[in-house]
């Protein structure tokens, strides 16, 4: 099969998946992440940057800004993808962007931690690994799009749980509870994501899990990553 045939086949599969979602389901999908976008671009990011500007330093401001931007990107692309009419080229493009934004949100969430609480060798290594994997995921998704979906999902999970490599210093982190809650929420939604073609409104349920996970991580960032006074609590030197 030529590359052109691969692209055509991928778009056909994408259109088929879009057709599997009823109008009501797509409305639910767009509304759920539309709410997430409104929150992330108003109260969420504004509050994080304001608190970091008042109580933090450049690391805090940059890290929460990256986290907030990654939140806005994910919810904006997801909402627009589900709101667009099925079978169109623009909807296919936004579906690719929707999946790509998952990589950037995971890396953005780790940025908030690694630039504030883990700025030792381990923290910078984790920071580089997350963004390296995010870049690899973006290239992978751009090239293969919706082929090898299991590989892409596995990549999300690996990126999300890389914190286990920093578990020793993270045990000192007061926000670990919110970090784990968010990770469990994202992971708990994966079965609904994988089965959304077989059960009605499973994709909207997946969206709710994503919103719960991002809310938990937002609380963690607000409470523990906006003040420079907390930045050295979990610094790892080994």
Automatic annotation (TrEMBL):
Q: Which residues form the signal peptide?
A: none
Residues passing through the membrane, by range: 30-52, 58-84, 96-118, 151-170, 176-194, 201-224
Q: Which UniProt keywords apply?
A: Cell membrane, Membrane, Metal-binding, Transmembrane, Transmembrane helix, Zinc
* GO CC aspect terms: plasma membrane
Keyword tRNA-binding attributed: no
Q: Where in the cell is it found?
A: Cell membrane
Gene Ontology MF term list = metal ion binding; pore-forming activity
Highest rank taxon of the organism: Eukaryota
Against InterPro entries, the record matches this protein to: AdipoR/HlyIII-related, Hy-lIII
**Is Cell inner membrane one of the keywords UniProt gives this record?**
no
How would you describe this protein's topology in the membrane?
Answer: Multi-pass membrane protein
Kindly list the positions annotated as binding Zn(2+): 82, 203, 207
For this protein, the record's PANTHER family field holds: ADIPOR/PROGESTIN RECEPTOR-RELATED (PTHR20855), LD03007P (PTHR20855:SF3)
Q: What is the official name of this protein in its record?
A: Channel protein hemolysin III family
């Amino acid at each position: 099969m030529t590359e052109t045939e691969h692209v055509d086949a991928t778009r056909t599969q994408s259109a088929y998946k879009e057709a599997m979602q009823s109008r009501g389901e797509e409305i639910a999908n767009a509304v759920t992440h539309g709410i997430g976008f409104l929150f992330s671009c108003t109260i969420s990011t504004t509050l994080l940057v304001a608190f970091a500007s008042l109580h933090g330093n450049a690391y805090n401001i940059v890290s929460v800004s990256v986290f907030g931007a990654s939140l806005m990107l994910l919810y904006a692309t997801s909402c627009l993808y589900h709101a667009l009419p099925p079978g169109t080229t623009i909807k296919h493009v936004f579906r690719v962007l929707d999946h790509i934004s998952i990589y950037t949100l995971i890396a953005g969430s780790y940025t908030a931690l690694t630039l504030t609480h883990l700025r030792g060798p381990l923290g910078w290594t984790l920071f580089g690994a997350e963004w390296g994997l995010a870049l690899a995921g973006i290239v992978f998704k751009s090239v293969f799009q919706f082929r090898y979906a299991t590989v892409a999902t596995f990549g999300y999970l690996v990126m999300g749980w890389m914190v286990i490599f920093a578990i020793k210093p993270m045990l000192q982190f007061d926000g670990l509870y919110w970090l784990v809650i968010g990770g469990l929420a994202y992971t708990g939604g994966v079965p609904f994501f994988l089965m959304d073609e077989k059960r009605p409104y499973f994709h909207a349920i997946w969206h709710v899990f994503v919103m719960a996970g991002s809310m938990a991580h937002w609380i963690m960032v607000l409470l523990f990553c906006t003040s420079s006074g907390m930045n050295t609590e979990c610094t790892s030197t080994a």
